[in-house]
Amino acid sequence: MKKYIKEAVAFLKQRGFKTPEVGIILGTGLGKIIENVNVEAEMSYNHIPNFPTATVEFHTGKLIYGELGGKKVILMQGRFHVYEGYSLRDVTFPVRVMEALGIKKLLVSNASGAINLNFKKGEIMLIDDHINLQGGSPLAFKGVEKLGERFVDMSAPYDAEMNKKIEAIAKTNNIALHKGVYASVVGPQLETRAEYRYLKIIGADAVGMSTVPEIIVANHLGLPVIALSVLTDECDPDNLKPVDIPDIIAQAGKAEPQMITLFTELIKQI
């Protein structure tokens, strides 16, 4: 793993990915923040040594380096998922590469379904805690202790200081921001009525198919991290309608300007 990380880092440094301060992982339908970045370098995933390749049609598959909010940033335009056939080590490999390039903070976004029926689609949730239902850990491999502490504390996986800042930014900009627990499942199928009821019982406010592996690895690396979910559908088991993927993408796009404001203003303050 160390060798693979070094090869990817050397390749990217040679191509202008020099001194990133903040890493950003962009979820489904949240790619327009790139328009606010003064881009200095970009590279398709399939050209980067040892990188997986995004296979989801609405994930672009590029690593982008530039300036946003007065800071040097590196953005993942498109992420990887277990449901694409990747291992949890593959899914989180880019986090390790960004940390090795020099990022000091990580910001993560995703699209998720609202389990908490007080939350409505098109709104945003700040993840305060999570439930890992992906059936494994990105730290469960031989030699992980060479990259960081094996038994990582997860009592407070999301950075409290950045969370406070983003809540204040939301208030200043009149952005309705919920706070809650995110459950991460494998997918790619959506949940049944019984599964939505189960998720509510165990304490989830939203459900998605990503994010938690990256958060675990960020904590493994001692990298302060926060995550925002755009709530793209309402998961009411008593009034469940067939999944509408175009509407999910549309809801993510609807919330995108607010996400851009939250992330950009946060980057200015960290």
Number of helices: 6
Largest sheet: 5 strands, mixed, barrel
What fraction, in percent, of the residue positions are helical?
A: 25-40%
| Count of structural domains | 1
Measured between the Cα atoms of the first and last residue, the distance is 30 Å
Radius of gyration: 17 Å
Name the average pLDDT: 93
Task: Specify the structural class.
Answer: alpha/beta
CATH C-level label: Alpha Beta
The name CATH uses for the topology is: Rossmann fold
Number of strands: 9
Under the CATH scheme, the architecture is: 3-Layer(aba) Sandwich
Large-scale geometry: globular
CATH homologous superfamily heading: Nucleoside phosphorylase domain
**Stretches with pLDDT under 50, minimum 5 residues:** none
Order of helices and strands: HEEEEHEEHEHEHEH
Largest beta sheet: strand ordering: 5-8-7-6-9
Strand proportion: 25-35%
